[in-house]
Design goal:
This protein is 46% helix and 14% strand. It is α/β, with parallel strands linked by helices. The chain folds into three domains: 268 residues, Rossmann fold (3-Layer(aba) Sandwich), CATH 3.40.50.620; 137 residues, Four Helix Bundle (Hemerythrin (Met), subunit A) (Up-down Bundle); 47 residues. It has a four-stranded parallel sheet, with helices on both faces. Strands 5-6-7-8 form a four-stranded antiparallel sheet. Strands 12-11-13 form a three-stranded mixed sheet, with helices on one face. The two termini are 48 Å apart. About 1% of the residues have low confidence.
Length: 471
């Protein structure tokens, strides 16, 4: 049995088979951040899910090309740029940098490609031109260009592949910006937005006059430019399924660049939202925390990561402070086992196979059942702790279990507990105590131990020598 994933396109769990199964190569695209502010941990739930998918595909032997776009031109950005008095590049550069720092803090791998929309304007224009040529895009009096859903349907294409609901009804409830009154049909969406005075100098020349791209077309153009007109996996938060992803399909398949019979994307994955008191964590509701808010309170990136990856990706869950404390203590249990194993394994050569990687595989193959994977990690922690308690575990067995953990952690991405810097003064006292013991000056050794204690430290005599430890 291989990996099975829920495919939003078919509303069922399916075996994951990439377009090129022999090469075991996978192209994946995840809609990235809109860089007008720091991301909140709801956004990062989706980005960490994407990181988990990528890591798991690599674990399963796939060669993955992971693309995540940076939306660096859009209504909110333009408004903030105007307010800040900075240039578009300065403003978005700052938040792009912050986004990459937050990803690193959370232990996410850097995507292979991080295309910025503003660096793909020629590709975007070319795609709109192609849609215009095919009669699917039309130009409005103000120089904006719209996608015609009727014309698209007229070509035998299906609008409404990802959502069962009546898309027209959904779109009516959608926010319609003031510069979109020229549409032939309320359901149509902008591909190119003609420049308006509030845009300042955020505009590019195009066959339709100065303007800027619509958000949906950016993702179609960038994903196809980097991964080809058909690729294996497309991810994003559940709110993006409609209209953003539906529109991506329409624009990309409307271009007819795909080989006959091939869709734009084979598998669509959508991550459920992170909630606060039952409501979506969102900037607009003001109920959000950034990664920085939490690290300033003393939480580590790996603790936040653990929490954000604790529930199945298709289930919403509530963010709470207690949840974060729970993540801290769960990680503490893993960390102390790893410390004990590391001590015991010194000099041991792995001579067996840990059960952990197989248990993780079994869990994650089932539509990335991460809750089951964590249960496997905690069963393993309990069993190995029990073996350690009986003194049955040999250094070689400990080394095998550590290797098993490292393999599992190539997917989980928790890393090891950062070693606490030991103050020089404490190290000196530990050394002085060792020397005193060697010289059989036990009174001095005891006095030094007491002094260490008063500073919040103790000394553990391990087989690798005395080690300072926080009390
Ligand atoms: P944005 O920066 O607003 O374009 O959003 C970036 C990504 O975060 C998108 O994939 C959204 O679907 C996702 N997202 C936004 N809010 C949440 C949330 N509360 N929980 C999970 N994902 C979210
Ligand atoms: Zn997108």
């Amino acid at each position: 049995m291989g990996l099975r994933l829920f495919n939003t396109l078919h509303r069922q769990v399916e075996e994951f088979v990439p377009f090129d199964p022999e090469a075991r190569s996978v192209g994946m695209y995840c809609c990235g951040p809109t860089v007008y502010d720091f991301g909140h941990i709801g956004n990062f739930r989706t980005f960490l899910f994407s990181d988990l998918v990528r890591r798991y595909l690599v674990f399963r032997g796939y060669k993955v090309r992971a693309v995540m776009n940076i939306t660096d031109v859009e209504d909110k950005i333009i408004k903030r740029v105007r307010e800040s008095g900075q240039s578009l590049a300065e403003f978005t550069g700052r938040y792009t940098q912050a986004f990459l720092e937050d990803l690193a803090i959370l232990g996410a791998l850097v995507p292979d490609d991080l295309p910025r929309a503003t660096a793909f304007i020629p590709h975007i224009i070319e795609l709109i031109r192609r849609l215009e040529e095919r009669g699917i895009a039309y130009r409005a009096a103000d120089g904006s260009v719209y996608f015609s859903i009727d014309k698209y349907r007229g070509c035998g294409c299906r609008y409404g592949q990802l959502v069962n609901l009546d898309p027209e009804a959904q779109r009516r409830t959608e926010r319609v910006t003031g510069d979109e009154y020229d549409k032939e049909n309320a359901a149509d969406f902008a591909l190119w937005k003609a420049r308006v005075p509030e845009d300042g100098d955020v505009a590019w020349d195009s066959p339709w006059g100065p303007g800027r791209p619509g958000w949906h077309i950016e993702c179609s153009a960038m994903s196809m430019a980097l991964l080809g007109p058909s690729f294996d996996l497309h991810l994003g938060g559940e709110d993006l399924a409609f209209p953003h992803h539906e529109d991506e399909i329409a624009q990309s398949e409307g271009s007819a660049l795909q080989a006959p019979g091939r869709p734009f994307v084979k598998h669509w994955l959508h991550a459920a939202h992170l909630l606060v008191d039952g409501k979506k964590m969102a900037k607009s509701l003001g109920n959000f925390f950034t990664v920085r808010d939490l690290t300033a309170r003393g939480y580590l990136g790996r603790e936040i990561r653990f929490l954000l990856l604790s529930a199945h990706y298709r289930e919403t869950f509530n963010f709470t402070q207690e949840g974060l404390e729970g993540a801290r203590s769960a990680l503490g249990r893993i960390d102390s086992l790893l410390e004990r194993l590391t001590e015991l394994a010194a000099g041991g050569v792995p001579d067996g196979i840990s059960k952990l990687p197989a248990a993780i595989t079994e869990a994650l193959d089932e539509d990335l059942n991460v809750s089951k994977a964590w249960a496997a990690v905690f069963d393993w922690t309990r069993d190995i702790n029990a073996a350690l308690a009986t003194g049955r575990l040999t250094p070689s067995a400990a080394a095998s279990e550590l290797a098993g953990w490292e393999r599992a952690d190539s997917v989980l991405g928790l890393g090891r507990k950062p070693s606490e810097a030991v103050p020089a003064e404490v190290l000196q006292m530990v050394e002085a105590r060792t020397a005193a013991k060697k010289a059989k000056d036990f009174a001095r050794a005891d006095a030094l131990r007491d002094e260490l204690k008063s500073k919040g430290w103790t000394v553990e005599d391990t087989k690798n020598g005395p080690k300072p430890k926080r009390l």
